[in-house]
């Protein structure tokens, strides 16, 4: 019998030990049993707003049964307090703090702004803990974005050969919001406050920027080309809820940026479809503003044209990058539907004859041809401006000297301004300096022009408006 009992003990003892270990493993050692009472609390509102920041938040509890020292008030986003944050310490069984401090602690504990979530609070002193009080609450953001790319002191050299390729992607960390959040990325020359907008995104924490766009910003900041200059970047988070708009701006990160000098090409239009004709020496230079080359000009249906790099047939020609075109002429990667390949050199225009705007983006190597707001050539052209009192009813008739070409000789005073009209009133056709006021020599029609500004001397000048070519000229006599 004794032997049998011994054998039973040998078999039972390991099982008892295993069960004891399982009990230990199943016990939640992070949540000890409470030894004193925390009294329940109410915030008075489930949704917090910045306007409540200084409102009081009060907790009371019974004294701990043993031990001494300060009480620690802790907050967690989970009931097990695995990741807890200390709200405050107290030497008594009462804590009076603010809604702003509570809001910050909840965010630090992992609650997201603008999302209703449970917050868990308990009191700790030494090895003793109180019971847990939980409440549903919606916090508001107090922290700011943190830029992670570029890093401080890093260097970025822009690539002139790849203008449309991404130069860098700005990245940052921030809350997970419960509402839409807009981010604004800005840069400035280091140490200044003249920040320029790089771009805006919504609900994402990165912004990709091309070599060209960053180089344009560097130019506006007057950064020297081919020189590494210090640049500051910042990110602003803008969110809105029932409590209003909250804007939080990151600390700046300073990095080195080396811009390049843009190498944009001169483009001359030539061909039977154009007002310039096929004489290379008469090829018309397009108006150029950085990467955009453009002109308002006449195009003939089913006529052919192409572009030259000079007023000569050699050495540079530009045409469509399409099968059948000479390899040396291939340039435009995309083109509008009213253009097509013609032979091995030229572009055919398939739209109706009339006035069109030709726009070329040298970054993307695209060409589009769209109708002008004044599609037909005028029968008459009149001169109006400060040189005659801006009286459209008495606009001066110009002499027609060619197809779509008009001239007039007149004295132009200092700071003279004028435009061309298709009638003696403001209700119909008009042409002025393309886009904005100035003296570029290029015409813009209704909706895309401003005054031609010419600094005269009071002497006589011949003013020529070549509507068909899309140009004007002021010649001293």
Key traits:
mainly beta; seven-stranded mixed β-sheet; seven-stranded antiparallel β-sheet; disordered N terminus
Please characterize this protein's 3D structure.
This is SusF/SusE family outer membrane protein. Residues 1-22 form the signal peptide. Keywords: Signal. With 477 residues, the protein is mainly β. It is 10% helix and 42% strand. The chain has three helices and 39 strands. Strands 17, 18, 21, 22, 23, 25 and 26 form a seven-stranded mixed sheet that branches. A hairpin with a 2-residue loop joins strand 5 (117-125) and strand 6. It is elongated and about 110 Å long. The protein starts with a helix and ends with a strand. The model is unreliable at 1-30 (pLDDT under 50).
Topology at a glance:
Elements: H1 2-26, E1 56-60, E2 71-76, E3 84-90, E4 94-98, H2 99-109, E5 117-125, E6 128-129, E7 133-137, E8 146-149, E9 155-157, E10 166-173, E11 181-189, E12 196-202, E13 206-210, H3 211-220, E14 229-241, E15 244-249, E16 253-258, E17 268-270, E18 284-285, E19 287-289, E20 292-299, E21 304-308, E22 317-320, E23 330-332, E24 334-335, E25 339-342, E26 346-349, E27 354-361, E28 366-371, E29 382-385, E30 396-397, E31 399-402, E32 405-411, E33 416-421, E34 430-434, E35 443-444, E36 449-450, E37 452-454, E38 460-466, E39 471-476
């Amino acid at each position: 019998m004794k032997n049998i009992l011994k054998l039973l003990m040998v078999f039972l003892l390991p099982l008892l030990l295993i069960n004891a270990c399982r009990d230990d493993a199943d016990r939640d050692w992070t949540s000890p049993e409470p030894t004193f009472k925390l009294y329940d609390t109410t915030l008075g509102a489930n949704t917090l707003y910045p306007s409540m920041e200084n409102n009081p938040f009060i907790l009371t509890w019974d004294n701990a049964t043993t031990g001494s020292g300060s009480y620690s008030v802790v907050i967690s986003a989970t009931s097990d307090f695995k990741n807890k944050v200390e709200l405050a310490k107290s030497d008594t069984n009462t804590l009076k703090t603010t809604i702003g401090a509570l809001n910050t602690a909840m965010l630090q504990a992992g609650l997201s702004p603008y999302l209703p979530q449970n917050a868990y609070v308990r009191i700790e002193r030494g090895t003793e803990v109180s019971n847990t009080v939980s409440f549903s609450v919606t916090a508001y953001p107090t922290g700011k974005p943190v830029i992670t790319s570029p890093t401080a002191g890093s260097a970025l050299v822009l690539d002139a050969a790849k203008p449309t390729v991404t130069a860098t992607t700005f990245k940052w960390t921030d809350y997970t919001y419960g509402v839409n959040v807009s981010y604004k990325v800005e840069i400035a020359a280091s140490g200044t406050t003249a920040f320029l907008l790089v771009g805006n995104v919504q609900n994402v924490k990165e912004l990709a920027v091309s070599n060209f766009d960053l180089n344009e910003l560097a130019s506006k900041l007057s950064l020297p080309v081919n020189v590494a200059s210090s640049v500051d970047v910042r990110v602003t988070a803008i969110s809105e809820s029932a409590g209003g708009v909250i804007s939080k701006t990151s600390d700046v990160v300073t990095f080195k940026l080396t811009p390049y000098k843009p190498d944009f090409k001169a483009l001359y239009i030539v061909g039977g479809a154009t007002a310039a004709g096929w004489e290379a020496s008469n090829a018309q230079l397009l108006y150029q503003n950085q990467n955009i080359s453009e002109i308002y000009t006449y195009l003939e249906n089913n006529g052919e044209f192409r572009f030259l790099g000079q007023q000569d047939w050699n050495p540079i020609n530009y045409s469509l990058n399409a099968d059948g075109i000479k390899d040396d002429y291939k340039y435009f990667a995309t083109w509008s539907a009213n253009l097509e390949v013609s032979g091995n050199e030229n572009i055919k225009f398939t739209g109706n004859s009339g006035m069109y705007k030709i726009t070329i983006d040298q970054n993307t190597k695209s060409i589009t041809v769209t109708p002008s707001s004044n599609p037909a050539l005028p029968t008459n052209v009149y001169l109006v401006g400060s040189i005659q009192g801006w009286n459209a009813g008495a606009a001066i008739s110009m002499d027609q000297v060619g197809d779509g070409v008009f001239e007039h000789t007149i004295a132009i005073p200092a700071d003279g301004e004028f435009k061309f009209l298709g009638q003696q009133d403001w209700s119909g056709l008009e042409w002025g300096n393309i886009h904005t006021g100035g003296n570029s020599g290029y015409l813009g029609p209704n909706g895309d022009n401003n005054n031609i500004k010419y600094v005269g001397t009071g002497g006589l000048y011949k003013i020529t408006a070549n509507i068909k070519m899309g140009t004007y000229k002021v010649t001293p006599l």
